[in-house]
Design a protein that fits this description.
Elements: E1 4-8, E2 14-23, E3 32-41, E4 51-57, E5 60-63, E6 75-76, H1 82-87, E7 91-93, E8 96-104, E9 107-114, E10 120-125, E11 132-138, E12 145-148, H2 150-174, H3 182-206, H4 222-230
Antiparallel strand pairs: 1-9, 1-12, 2-3, 2-11, 3-6, 4-5, 7-10, 8-9, 10-11
Length: 255
């Protein structure tokens, strides 16, 4: 197994976090920022659930990278705005392995993993003014692992960065009023971003900036390096093909 063995996320794993959101406590009407405790499990995701109906990773269904808890009663706080907070909630697993893909209820996705020591998965949680990694998924008891490479790490960091920028845009520019349409707008933005990325990669390949790169100790070919770094799904759940990309092996995680 290439890469660092990391615990695979499944639908039974508990998520804990502490998020900052606008708060109103009557009779006061001026909102202020306060902490909201997050407690849930990865099986309670809606609408961006990426659990697999066919693949299990330990006692629960395996999850795809960018599995998102989404809207639901995941936050605990004394706050008159709590229904709005839960409506626009998000807690996303940004890291996965490009070498293993699974069938999920929303298509084929990379396998999600917990990358921190002890099997702790970093969750990008909704916050104000933007999403931040203030949540954790606990996969320490899972015996199923998958190889996590530096390329996978870079891909996850890029994905996290893009999601953070998007959340800042929604929080500070558009406001909570567009929360119900967030997924649709994200997908439109993702289609545009994916097309731009695909064209850029093709141009770089033509100029031999990428084609000439061989084994960098991350992945065995330049095409796989590109896939690991810019898997144009990005943070938006969109798969975009680009020249030279090869399908991952699809090998099941090693136990």
């Amino acid at each position: 197994m290439a890469g660092l063995p990391c615990k695979v996320l499944n639908a039974t794993h508990v998520v804990l976090g502490l998020d900052a959101h606008d708060t109103v406590i009557p009779p006061e009407i001026v909102p202020f920022l306060s902490g909201h405790v997050v407690i849930s499990d990865l099986g309670r995701a809606f609408p961006r659930s990426l659990d697999s109906p066919t693949v299990k990773a330990g006692p629960g269904a395996a999850l795809g990278r960018q599995h998102d808890l989404g809207m639901g009663a995941h936050h605990l706080a004394i706050n008159a705005l709590l229904p709005a907070v839960n409506l626009a909630a998000s807690s996303k697993a940004e890291f996965g392995v490009a070498s293993v893909r699974i069938s999920t209820v929303q298509g084929v996705k990379q396998l999600g993993v917990a990358i921190a020591p002890g099997g702790v998965g970093l969750q990008l949680d909704c916050n104000k003014p933007c999403s931040m990694p203030t949540g954790s998924a606990f996969a320490g008891l899972n015996t199923v692992v998958a190889g996590f490479t530096p390329g996978d790490l870079l891909q996850g960091l890029l994905s996290t960065f893009c999601d953070t920028l998007i959340s800042y845009f929604f929080n500070m520019v558009l406001g909570a009023g567009l929360a119900p349409n967030k997924a649709m707008i994200e997908r439109m933005v993702g289609q545009l971003a994916g097309a731009v990325v695909a064209k850029l990669i093709a141009q770089l390949q033509e100029k031999a900036f990428i084609r000439g790169v061989k084994d960098l100790g991350v992945l065995s070919t330049s095409a796989k390096l590109v896939e690991a770094i810019i898997n144009a799904e990005y943070s938006l759940g969109l798969d975009v093909e680009f020249p030279g990309a090869e399908e991952p092996s699809g090998r099941p995680p090693a136990r």
